[in-house]
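Reviewer comment 2.1 asked that we show a complete input and output for one of the modelled complexes. We chose the NAP case, as it is the one discussed in the main text.
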Amino acid sequence: MGADLVAGRTAIVTGAAQGIGLAIARLLHENGAKVVLVDLAADLAGQAAAGIGGDRLLPLACDVTDEASVEQVVRQTVEEFGSLEIYVNNAGIARDASLRKMSVDDFEAVMNVHLKGSWLGVRAASAVMREAGRGSIVNISSLSGKSGNAGQTNYSAAKAGIVGLTKAAAKELAHKGVRVNAVQPGLIRSAMTAAMSPQAFAEREAAIPMRRAGEPGEVAGAVLFLASDLSSYITGAVLEVGGGRFM
Ligand code: NAP
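Response of the prediction step:
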């Protein structure tokens, strides 16, 4: 799907070593972007970049919960590629447990990666984009943040928080030419959902009107749309990619 929809632009994708983040990085690259693949482990980010292949790629290690690390990635990106037009907050973890069993550590770890990490990314990226007068930030929320999933009080809260962050930032940045939108994937095949039992996975699939889980590339398509000028009059929106679930 190489249509050059984001040719000449620079994108940072967090959590890009695998799964949905890797699919997003690949599709943005196919569409002409220079792409910075950010993940916790430098070697895995490097392998992901090698798997995509070609130039216009920069793998970087970064913990999205660390302010200095996120600021450094943005600085290094601008030094290397000269600009920053697209930032995708995708890095994520799950620490599922019932309220009776969930520890404060589980709660804080998930809030930190998803909510604090996205906030740090929005703040650092928008500082560059508002000066340039253009940019698109895409935050990966989840249908879990819309509907609430039992066993995911931490994750659902963080993903709902990302919607609030998206809308508030969109209002602050709209007049500066910077758009901020969110994507809410449903059940998508990745390492995160591979951890589910086959029975739980099948039950979730059965509840989806399209009767199947989504593929990472199907989330990437929505992100490409929001990152590109095809969505030039869309900001503060939440785009569901869930096969019709929870509509
Ligand atoms: P994944 O395969 O587990 O990939 C997530 C990536 O983020 C991993 O490479 C992970 O590295 C990285 N990461 C974790 N903590 C990080 C940190 N502090 N700093 C930088 N990178 C970090 O998950 P996925 O399924 O592709 O999910 C991607 C996003 O989509 C997440 O935000 C997730 O919540 C969201 N989402 C997924 C689904 C689904 O069904 N899969 C549905 C809705 C929303 P490690 O492996 O080293 O931890």
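The mean pLDDT is 97. We note this here for comparison with the apo prediction described in Section 3.2.
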